């Protein structure tokens, strides 16, 4: 029964007409092409083709704009990469510089300077003992060097007693 619905008028055809459809490919093709469902399917197919062609034309019309936008995006990406590299370099430089002001670095530098002052005063003493420095020059140099040593030692002791003094520095 479903076959009759798909092929209307087939039951009204005579045996000769049916025989002709079976033997003549052109007659069969004409019969099939005239079926309502086939005409509807062909119409839908044509509409889909026309719609696809229209979409393709619109896409092609927008291709130059798309290429321009792609070029702009590529330029912006290159600019971003350049700017990001500059930013990263600046950030690293800032971090490297900020280490100099960290409490631990300040204490280390103060200890190092204290040792330098002590070594310098010992060197001045040795020069005096070796006769390379006059007494008046020795007294002035030694006194100045020891004054710096004691100032640095006092600062180091003060920081050791109250480590919060350097928290504003880092």
Automatic annotation (TrEMBL):
Q: What InterPro entries is this protein classified in? A: ESCRT_assembly_dom, Helix_hairpin_bin_sf, Mod_r
Keywords attached to this entry? Coiled coil, Endosome, Protein transport, Transport
The protein's matches in Pfam families, at most eight in alphabetical order, are given as:
Mod_r
The superkingdom of the source organism is Eukaryota
A single GO BP: protein targeting to membrane
Which residue spans adopt a coiled-coil conformation according to this UniProt entry? Answer: 52-79
Report the principal subcellular site.
other
What residue stretches are annotated with the VPS37 C-terminal domain?
85-170
Compartments annotated for it: namely: Endosome
Q: Which GO terms describe its cellular component?
A: ESCRT I complex
Stored SUPFAM superfamilies: Endosomal sorting complex assembly domain
**Family, as annotated:** Belongs to the VPS37 family.
Q: Which PANTHER family match?
A: VACUOLAR PROTEIN SORTING-ASSOCIATED PROTEIN 37, VACUOLAR PROTEIN SORTING-ASSOCIATED PROTEIN 37A
Q: What is this protein called?
A: VPS37 C-terminal domain-containing protein
Q: Which organism is it from?
A: Rhizophlyctis rosea
């Amino acid at each position: 029964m479903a076959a009759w619905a798909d092929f209307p008028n087939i039951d009204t055809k005579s045996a000769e007409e049916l025989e002709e459809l079976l033997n003549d490919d052109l007659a069969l093709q004409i019969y099939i092409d005239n079926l309502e469902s086939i005409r509807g399917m062909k119409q839908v197919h044509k509409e889909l083709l026309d719609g696809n062609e229209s979409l393709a034309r619109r896409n092609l019309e927008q291709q130059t704009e798309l290429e321009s936008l792609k070029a702009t995006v590529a330029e912006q990406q290159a600019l971003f990469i350049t700017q990001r590299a500059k930013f990263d370099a600046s950030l690293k430089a800032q971090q490297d510089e900020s280490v100099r002001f960290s409490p631990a670095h300040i204490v280390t530098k103060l200890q190092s300077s204290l040792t330098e002052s002590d070594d310098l005063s010992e060197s001045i003493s040795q020069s005096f003992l070796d006769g390379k420095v006059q007494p008046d020059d020795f007294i002035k140099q030694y006194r100045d060097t020891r004054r710096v040593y004691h100032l640095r030692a006092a600062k180091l002791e003060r920081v050791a007693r109250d480590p919060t003094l350097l928290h504003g520095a880092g």
